[in-house]
Description:
The protein is an all-alpha fold. 68% of the residues lie in helices and 2% in strands. The chain has 18 helices and 4 strands. It has helices at residues 2-7, 12-30, 35-52, 54-80, 85-99, 108-129, 138-146, 162-167, 172-200, 209-229, 234-257, 264-280, 286-298, 304-315, 331-343, 351-358, 366-373, 381-395; strands at residues 148-149, 152-153, 318-320, 326-328. It has a two-stranded antiparallel sheet. It has a two-stranded antiparallel sheet with strand order 3-4. It is elongated and about 80 Å long.
Amino acid sequence: MDTIGNLFSFITGPVSWIIVQFHKLYGAIFGADTGWAWGLSIVSLVIVIRICLIPLFVKQIKSMRNMQALQPKMKAIQERYKNDRQRQSEEMMKLYKETGTNPLSSCLPILLQSPFFFALYHVLSKIASGDTIGSLNQNLVDSAREAHIFGAPIAAKFMDDPGTVQALNASLTDVRVVTAVMIVLMSASQFFTQRQLMQKNVDLTVKTPYMQQQKMLMYIFPIIFAVMGINFPVGVLVYWLTTNVWTMGQQMYVINQNPTPGSQAQDHYLQRLLKSISHHGEVRGRRKRNVLQAIVAKGPDRNENERRFITALGKQGFTAQADGTVQKVDPAVAEAEAAAARRQQPKRQTKAKRQAAAAQPGAAKPSLEKKAEEPKAGGNQQQGKASSGSARQAKSGQRKGQQRPKHPSSKK
């Protein structure tokens, strides 16, 4: 781990400088040698980094939604070119380019945080050994060594031996209890964040391999962080717990205010929007008008949540306008318009149902039936009647083929 920290030593200077500046502020309030001053300095470092990464977070959300929408097309390409890996990769890259999707965008926030993470680990390791680094002079290093968070030094680890912990003026029990609690909280926040994304902000009507992959990560990531956490100093655990809580809150805001179409979160959002319109009689807020405008523009391509919303809006006596506003109308007129819109949107049968209907015995092609009913050129009337009878029997589900001629004595 020290080797990895040395690789990111170029950023230890800025990281240590930010911590020192916040320590001056919190030291004046809580005391320079307290755990609150140093702990809040690390928390503030996380906040500064995450604010700088907000544009990348927005890009990450857009990329994840684009990836969800492209999963059916990607699966079709994989099945079509399953024996040609090169052509499959070319078609995938072409699809990404046409839609403006970058598969690596979802990993950018984590990747860009890693230098700060390892730089902080390197700084805390130097503090534990009593060495100066970056903007941390010897007085600040000694102050940080004396800082305890709930009885655990910020440079102590769960796997430290009793001698190392004793050199930091702490007990091994306090260190292990505090680090264990923080590891559990860090893993639980990671799990809850991913679970919230999978259950509320994913279109569950579309089953794709991408969803299965995200579901696996929901269980794998917390386990990875729990295993790695026993080797993290307390200060690094504070860093990672803070960034997980920030991610969870940031994601909750996005899910509530800008949910994925077709998801459970969108249904809840549209219900809140309906209550707001019913209470105020208008659409309040530019963002809400943009949402309503997008729903109106979809027309027959609306998902089930949006269709229910438009229907409920009509029952409340409102009709949605193209500019994102609503107009008060007679509920009976609005209901009639909604019914007419529903009639124009026939329910689409699935591929399995269409194939089953085509495979039924009585589902003969009209062209063949018509051809069977017409007598051949140059044929006599009896052949024409036999052909017509054969066609009628095939149509009614009877056995096809040439019919036995009637006996001359039988009545016609």
